[in-house]
Amino acid sequence: MITKTVALIGTFDTKGEEFCFLRERIESAGLRTLMIDVGVLGTAPFEPDISQTEVAAAANEDLAALKTERDRGRSVTAMAAGAKAILARLFEQGAIHGVASLGGSAGTTIATAAMRALPCGFPKLMVSTLASGDIKPYVGTTDICMMPSVLDIAGLNHVSRRIIGNAAAAICGMVQSEPSSVLDQKPAIAATMFGVTTPCVTAARHTLEERGYEVLVFHATGAGGQAMEQLIEDGAFRAVLDMTTTELADELVGGVMSAGPHRLEAAGRKGIPQLVCPGAIDMVNFGPIETVPPQFRGRNLYIHNPSVTLMRTTPDECAEIGRITATRLNRASGPVTVLIPLRGVSAIDKIGAPFYSQEALDAYRHALKTSLSRTIQLVELDAHINDEAFALAAADLLMESLGASMETRAARTPK
User: Fold this and answer.
1) 10-residue averages of pLDDT along the chain (415 residues)
2) Rounded to whole angstroms, how far apart are CA atoms 372 and 366?
3) In angstroms, rounded to a whole number, what is the distance separating the alpha carbons of residues 197 and 200?
4) Tell me, what DSSP letter sits at residue 241?
5) Which is it for strands 283-286 and 308-312: parallel, antiparallel or unpaired?
6) What whole-number distance in Å separates Cα of residue 98 and Cα of residue 368?
7) How many CA atoms lie within 13 A of 92 on its CB side?
8) Which stretches of 234-357 are DSSP H helices?
């Protein structure tokens, strides 16, 4: 059995003592360490395995020049790029099995930029002074584990030793744990879900799982949609069951759960089958009621829970969501089906519910139909999105697209 290796990325010139302690704790657990120095200000108190000069060179930069310029922003950018290139190479070589770091703002920026180059599931741990705040700029769509350092990373004491010791135990546990077997791994399908579309997605998921697929469900909270798009781009899925496109509403209107301007694009570029539904486009997401922007205070608002306030989209906004959906899907190189429930698109968009609006749904339908390419299959069902019949129809239509896609692929394969 090989001894696994944990890469430690850090500014050893300013945090060498702390990294030595982290290294000692990891190696005492029977693992190796590989020390990557990304500091620029001074020199490390020990000989790293990969020097700051090598890191700078990996970014096509000269370390001496960076030290002379003393431009903190440029130095951080350069060392982040170099660390990213080195970490990606080490991973491809199978030379590392996990990565960990300790840092303040600069160290966190450099280390997490490098960690984001690694695939989902590869152990990544960042002990940071910034971990109790907004960590989205550092984590992005990846599975980096952020651990608050509580104290600044500035010397060893009874608190910092305990925290760094816990960090060592955490990364060792991740690295030493056996990954789930991939021998029986099933072809994967991505799906999107919100609380208000859960019955539909759950029923469709069960149907697809019974037919031999593994369904990975993403919470359509902005970050969820971005993560799904990235994994589609990485080739992780055979198809996409995009039942909840609510993030388009937040992107358009200015809610807090936008997935950005590239939602609904990756599956089309990859040419894989996708089934798209206007799930939860009836709502825009905000935080607690007091955080709703003043210009929206007179709109139809619904308190989903104390932390989430929903705002009903207008017919004009739904029409624009329809046009955006069509424009992005028209560029797809693979099979696309759009499935529309005629009796409502969320749990609170049905007759008698607070967000029910036939006018808004009709505006979406008309705009979509006007803009959608004729090569895209459009199906409308006289059902609510959370009806079992609708969920089963979605699963069946996606299976049809998958079958047709596999037949096309087989016909193109040289015999």
Assistant:
1) 92 95 97 96 92 96 89 92 97 97 94 94 96 90 94 92 97 87 75 96 97 96 94 94 98 96 97 98 96 96 94 98 98 97 98 97 98 97 98 97 68 53
2) 10
3) 6
4) E
5) antiparallel
6) 46
7) 7
8) 247-253, 266-270, 315-329
Alpha carbon 274 to chain centroid distance? 19
Give me the count of residues in the chain: 415
Give the contacts of 205 (CB within 8 A, at least 6 positions apart). Answer: 191, 215, 217, 241
| Distance separating alpha carbons of residues 153 and 325, to the nearest angstrom | 47
Spatial strand order in the sheet of 124-128? 32-37, 5-10, 98-103, 124-128, 145-148
Amino acid identity for residue 119 in this structure = P
Predicted model pTM: 0.81
Reading the block at residue 106, the tokens are 């600069």
Q: What angle do CA 320, 324, 330 make, to 5 degrees?
A: 140
Q: Tell which phi-psi region holds residue 264, choosing left (phi > 0), alpha (psi between -120 and 50) or beta.
A: left
The H-or-E segment that residue 33 falls in is strand 32-37
Residue 406: Cβ within 10 Å count = 12
Burial of 92 (0-12, 13-18, 19+ CB in 10 A): exposed
Of 394, 380, 292, 301, the closest CA to residue 344 belongs to 380
Judging by DSSP bridges, how do beta strands 336-341 and 274-276 pair with one another?
parallel
Tokens of 219: 């919470």
